[in-house]
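Our preliminary data section would be incomplete without showing what the modeling component actually yields. Below, a chain of 119 amino acids is followed by its predicted structure, encoded as tokens that our downstream tools consume directly.
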Amino acid sequence: QVQLVESGGGLVQAGGSLRLSCTASGFAISIGTMAWYRRAPGKQRELVAFITGGGTTNYAGSAKGRFTISRDNAGNTVYLQMNSLKPEDTAVYYCNAASPFGMPRYASWGQGTQVTVSS
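Predicted structure:
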């Protein structure tokens, strides 16, 4: 059974940093692409960043230059380092396995982790 557990969110002032973690079980993240998504209040879930099995990364324009996605295959964990946070980054953040183009693979999502950035 696939499980995704996100953590590391919190309340931070604009300009601050957070590091999100996502630990997967039921599958090995090393086999393919992993991605972070977010859902802001009143908006649809959107792709933030993804990392392929070979380590290639890709970022949404809003995240480029500020966020860094990485993976620890041994720990079956993917990370999202977020720097220079802005109020518009406020959202619930989720991870999932993904296609090579960042489309989510599993229908079952974790509970997400709330990120709130104050101005």
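The chain has a mean pLDDT of 96. Residues 6 and 22 are 4 Å apart (CA to CA). Preliminary results of this kind motivate Aim 1 of the renewal.
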